[in-house]
């Protein structure tokens, strides 16, 4: 009885803590659904995109790459590199869920997003499976539901408004980049350098456009590791 009450309490906490994520996800997911519609992607494909990927920035990026005619292999590799941080976030939280069976870990890892990780990591003490799953489930449903709503809404919007939604793609990346760039000059430098490297590679036309992005990410990431290692070493 006491265990069931504790589980209900954890579920309630997950619902309350996940509400801000839901409020933030729905409009962004709607923008993705509308952009999918205007990009010529079918309803089922757009729906499965959010169901199976569930990664906001990567979905917008993949949509842009599809529109640019980039190959499937380059899109998959680029998405993997962009989302590599999720391995670290999942590993960080796994150590705080001592009573969670191993069979639940893949599901918990799938539901980890930047926003979910931020909220969950601030919760004090041990984490329960019920709390995390509840928070992740309402976040997931809001993202998928927002995508469907946006796609359906895109079908009734005037063509001029649908076309203007393409700006939302760039606004999404700017909204992600600017706050981080303000925190660190190194991050701002790496972001600018990444754009310069990609522009240079595109101008030289040595590789296909998709591989230009992959190579830019790898090169600038290596430079970033060197810069931040020097910073850490200076503190020792």
From TrEMBL:
GO terms for cellular component: plasma membrane. The keyword Disulfide bond does not apply. It is a multi-pass membrane protein. Its main location: membrane. The keyword Transmembrane helix applies. One of its GO terms (biological process) is L-valine transmembrane transport. Keywords: Cell membrane, Membrane, Transmembrane, Transmembrane helix, Transport. Coiled coil: none annotated. The chain crosses the membrane at residues 14-35, 65-84, 131-154, 160-178, 187-204, 210-228. It is found in: Cell membrane. It comes from the Bacteria. Pfam families: AzlC (PF03591). Belongs to the AzlC family. This is AzlC family ABC transporter permease. The lineage of its organism: Bacteria, Bacillati, Bacillota, Clostridia, Eubacteriales.
